[in-house]
Design a protein that fits this description.
Length: about 190
């Protein structure tokens, strides 16, 4: 485990507070506000510049590594958002977090959070079927496209998609981030 330094304290407190705050906001409101993500992104750039400078490459701490991490975190979720697989807040969440945690950790967090989302979704669906039955669970979480009055279905709105959302993305990202950070601390890696 690395020695406790000012850099490590700033890193752990910042990433910890950010992931907890976004997870709480997302769980309660199904939104991740810009007032959290945008300042954290800027602070991440300042953190990298102050403690790591430009860095020594893509997979190393510093502004160069932060840019590569941002491209991975923001880029992957931006593509998913464009095809309807997530929200804009999720994109900004990973973009802001990635400049702090770096390229390798961003890839690991993306992978682990996806595993957690899949496991959580399966758990919620199974619990719904067991407690409410197949029909009510299907009705609650799937867009049917059928109109009760025989008219063509209305276009789906963002609010209707959000109301069917099974789980927020920030809680799985928080859990994945803590696991990756703990693993990196255990291995003695630089931040």
């Amino acid at each position: 485990m690395p020695e406790m330094s000012l850099q490590l304290v700033v890193y752990l407190v910042s990433v910890g507070v950010f992931t907890v705050a976004t997870a709480i906001f997302d769980a309660r409101t199904k939104r991740i506000p810009n007032k959290l993500t945008l300042p954290f992104f800027g602070a991440g750039l300042l953190y990298q510049l102050a403690f790591n400078g430009l860095g020594e490459g893509v997979a190393r701490p510093g502004l160069i590594g932060a840019a590569a991490a941002f491209a991975a975190g923001f880029g992957m979720l931006w593509v998913l958002w464009m095809i309807g697989g997530g929200g804009g807040g999720d994109v900004k969440l990973m973009g802001a977090l990635s400049v702090w945690i770096g390229f390798k950790a961003t890839v690991m967090v993306l992978f682990l959070s996806t595993v957690f989302v899949i496991a959580g979704t399966i758990g919620v669906m199974v619990l719904g079927v067991v407690t409410q039955g197949m029909f009510r669970t299907k009705e609650a979480y799937l867009a049917s496209g059928a109109s009760p009055n025989g008219l063509p279905p209305a276009a789906e709105t963002a609010a209707s998609r959000q109301s069917r959302r099974i789980m927020g993305y920030a809680p799985p990202v928080a859990l994945a981030t803590w696991l990756v950070v703990a693993w990196n601390l255990y291995r003695g890696l630089a931040f």
